């Protein structure tokens, strides 16, 4: 069929005015207050390809630290293009013996893929407290359901690298040790609600910089 | 395992910059326009424990009125901390003979717990119009599905107290009598769409302050 | 039951202050940036009946064009009253031989009702690529699942009119031809990712005003 | 690019085994119990084009009745193809003077398009009870937010026809009169919760076949 | 308006056949496997008023135990009527000194109302680990966002009673101590992922019945 | 605090009976019909750690084919553990010159991370048809919004490997070429709805095994 210049292109386009149209995506305008569903959208006219890609996970994180691990995030705050799209990702580098301490993600499930090395990972179910443990090698994947405590450990002899995706733009991160010991949560209260010995609590508060 | 001062605490925290991070909760900034998912969030730096608690349901409502009942709400407008969290609550005080007139909640289901007294409650299903009635005593609970007409009556000899929770921050409230008689809904239209006698309509408009 | 003036009306109303209350609806304030859940709400005090009705689909669209068809939308951008309500609609006019070219709606399913004429419509499933075709006459309806390619053709001898509703305020619209040929998508890339001949690509880019 | 026979087609298809694949749609298997998200899906191998189209709205409903109106539904029960797709539709025929009595849809918003005639329609907001009324002519549309009482009346001199879409597969239907008078809702309770006169209640129970 | 016997009642009812109609609610059929959205629905013909009320929270729980507290649930498993309705509730009895140990609800936010006594409650935010503490008296309410660790303690001199509602039919329950010590989570792993001393771990495993 | 054997463990556990408890996760029972929200859950008593991990993405896919690429999925059908968790993943192997042809995912957004090699990727927006292109190197990520056409090409000189996550358990896959040419979509219809030349259509139908 013969289509003359420009006729076709204007038919539908003109009927769908630019303003208020683009909700294919909603690149976060981080300068505005977020809402429960995410950030307001940046004007589409200011959106470029660079908003949909991110280079920040390309470099190995610095694992020269006590847990011999690093987590490099690409959540909405770092990668505004994921705003409203229900997906995000972080990079995990674990040196030999490295540990991602026990933690939860209140807002989404996690899917881990091992790129290098060997990782021992696990989570605990609620109510029945069943422990689900797996040793994961290169190319293996594991899923950690939303809100349940889980961890990863480099159980191999070489550095490990993994990527963890989440089914939400920001799953949240609650590290159990930090919640208990790295703030001003009164020691006697921590003792009452966890049955941990006061000495244990004070010790970990001491090393994590907690007070009270 | 020995953890030197401050090392651990900065590892993960620094990787998750404060800005754009906190979506654990979203205390409503009521000064900004709401969105379909709720209000924009107040800055986390301005959030305190007081944002998550509310004292307004502590006092008995004033039941010295015609329905001998009072409803005291803690929805998003009164309790901004529930914004985005999918939950809210109201306090119901019913004096002897008190009545919460027939109404619906367009946006959420209701779960009532009786604290004192005896309450006769019920709802009507859609399509088939089955009436589900229960007499509830202290400690009993009843659920009223979203959008269906329901009511509560104090059917005992003492004042009744109950709390009603909703699975949303603001379930809406449509009192059937108010929708029909407490506005400028033209009498002849009300008659046509409800088959209520004009005299009945005018009478109730008169007492409720409706016009037209 | 006798109800004195004004007593009843103030009981519940006063307990539900106007501000922050009305989330029955959320007429879009198109002057503000949208969020993933829709636009911020216009102040309820400025909302009138006119916000909930729209006259723009009353006139037949201009089908004197190459596809002999017109689509007149009432999505959130044109009809702000649908904001947050999960529904929208467009009017389709197809002259004899008219065609709505192959397209998808990334964000919602479509339900078409034929008002006049005869329409041949179809969609293709994902993974298995099954083609589902139907010839629809006056009063017939057809549903097109979210995100799947579909089309409508006037297969009769008289003009056709249909309305297509969507289960979302703005389903998006991706016309396959426009995505391939009506922009600056490099010809060699289009060839690589679709296996279409370069000559075919250049031809359609030429007529649709695409470049590169 | 030259593509030999069959090579390409098997690459991706084989990697996506048929079983468990098709969630593009989920045609309802009405012989199985529904779940909160809809019905279980019929086997894709048994799905045909006929599952996605429906002829039941093609005929004018019988309006020779007391309300001089008819509603012909294409919800999930009648049109299993909409299961899981978030959309459904009904046909409204209103003879001269016809009325769709005051009702709500607990589960979804409604979008009405007038095909023939003139319809006076309106809804009432919750909390503040504002009445939003419009007179709609051919081609006009109006939206009725989820859960709010609304009605339609043929306010013209000729029969009226309209289609009403919903942003859900089954929005529910609660006709206020039926909920109050067309069941065994005890008269004294109706009186207490609506303030309608006992005589009025008995009269309407009488005509609608209610008891008690 | 005069309405003859039965005419009106059949108009709309007949057009909405009983089967497949009732999705106002979906009382759980606990004999069938659940789905991600809840349980399949019990046949509406077998649903009675008793499905929507529950008496199990009327009695004080037995607090003669080590934590001097009891939690009595009315989640979907105990109260099938809440299935699909997005709401549930539990009763909390705390004797003097009673404690609900540190825990999370992976699937929903919690809203607590104090009925008797004085409760000290708090939660910790993710990422920044801010502790939000409040002392709650009779009639006070507090909200605990989904997935975050929280606790309640009876900080008064008399028994405390509270009800906690959730914006979901089953929010899940992960008690941190149980997840760490009341199963076969290997001690050396617990030590690695929490930095708790082996002695502390073994001690609490011992008292909670954990192994390994 | 001293905790005697077993006392604590039974307090809360007994109050939360096993049945109907586990909705932390919902491992798919693929032998049962799916529902719009996913598959029914396998009994928790039959769930093991192996349900949460998957080894199928560990091996490089076979790229000795015409597109010099392979996609290995871990969606719900292959990895039942992701059922209800809102996440899934696939492995992409692209040999030199390899191509993932233009396609969409109707049900979810995609987040790609490049593990090896160089990938040129892009998507096209709806309505305005803007092309967003990026060249991605090792460690780079890119997001492709739900429902929009996109592609990936190995633009480097070595094999490329990437993982693509989705914010849903099965995002669907519609390959545009397959939808047009690899089925029995009548040639004349394809011509009418895409304006592709009949010769082009017949050619690609020929190589893809399409008919009609």
From TrEMBL, chains A, B, C, D, E, F:
Entry-linked PROSITE patterns: GERMIN
Residues annotated to bind oxalate: 105, 110
One Pfam family matching this protein: Cupin_1
Annotated keywords: Apoplast, Disulfide bond, Manganese, Metal-binding, Secreted, Signal
GO cellular component labels: apoplast
Annotated localization: Secreted, Extracellular space, Apoplast
GO MF, any single term: manganese ion binding
Record domain Cupin type-1: where: 55-202
Residue positions binding Mn(2+): 103, 105, 110, 150
Cysteine pairings via disulfide bonds: 26-41
Domain of life: Eukaryota
Signal peptide: 1-22
Family per similarity comment: Belongs to the germin family.
Record's protein name: Germin-like protein
